Inactive heparanase-2 (Eleutherodactylus coqui), 407 residues
Amino acid sequence: MRRLRRSWHMKEPGPPGAARSLDKLYNFVDCSGLHLIFGLNALRRNSDNSWNSSSVLSLLKYSASKKYNISWELGNEPNNYRTLNNRAVNGSQLGKDYVQLKNLLQSIRTYSRAHLYGPNIGRPKKNVISLLDSFLKVGGRAVDAVTWQHHNIDGRVGKAMDFMKTRLLDALSDQIRKIQKVVNMHSPGKKVWLGGVGAPWSRGTNNLSDTYAAGFLWLNTLGMSANQGVDVVIRHSFFDHGYNHLVDQNFNPLPDYWLSLLFKRLVGPKVLAVHVAGIQRKPRPGKVIRDKLRIYAHCTSHHNHNYVRGSITLYIINLHRSRKKIKLAGTLRDKIVHQYLLQPYGTEEIQSKSVQLNGQRLAMIDDETLPDLKPRPLRPGRTLVIPPLTIGFYVVKNVNAVACRYR
């Protein structure tokens, strides 16, 4: 699944009210059709610095008694434990902790086959890579996917254009390769997930990371991750976490929510190569593309029943200050295209917290009802015109692409 992961992540509740807190959380997740990945506290330690799992066992037993379908994770950014909590845990010890948790899960029938993810390290600097290397030597077999976090820019950015610097958009590519190199050394074929991603760290920046401008970085992260084989991307966060959230305090969707919704509905997991004027645009190992016009292609989502299998979805990021024209060629040339052009709405331009789809402002119809995401049909052979500083999704209908006919 190379797309936005439908997951919820929180820390282990303390003993008072833990059961009630878990019930509320799970009921929300379940009625929303999501899957819960529960982050357990890794900083409960014994005198020898081994993980103390006593409180976790009671939590697991309670959760199992309710038959809650949960996946698990232990800790968050272990490379920062010393700085934030004055308690260091090295990679080998963390690997032992994960093996301990895996054995604990296997001892409980409900969770004997539950998924376990980790270690959710931070940006892969030298010390972090060393921690991951030690972790995988000891605990690599315990995890179903290796997770890490990526934050693109400092929370002190001062202007919207900072979100569109190609240097920042391309930084992720090298980090993915660093993680994959270590993982493939110890656990070839093991899945790699972006277990947490947001625009800036330090909780984001008001009127910047919660505006249309941040969408360029977010969509590029999804496209680049998929191109480089990252199976799942988990977003920081849905609600009430600084200014990286997807909905505001009144639960009104912000621009990245609408972008994520379009991505989820239109983009399937299978990635396709893109050729522009005879030049292959799919990133190759060791090559960084600093383009301001970025084009990604996938098979259209099989879950979207408006399109038959074999259709293709392009999503395009135009960082230029001028419009760009794209003419489809080959078997795509004579097909009807559905355009989903996402642009800022209002006088704030790219710093707007509202968006329009094909000229119509997107807003909830009521507290429970999303609006129709209506495409604009383009006749066969028509040139795609991408306005300056915009994002667009384009579904090429009925291509009958062989790669997209089957799951």
Notes: Confidence is low (pLDDT under 50) at residues 1-15, 285-289. The two ends are 11 Å apart (CA to CA).
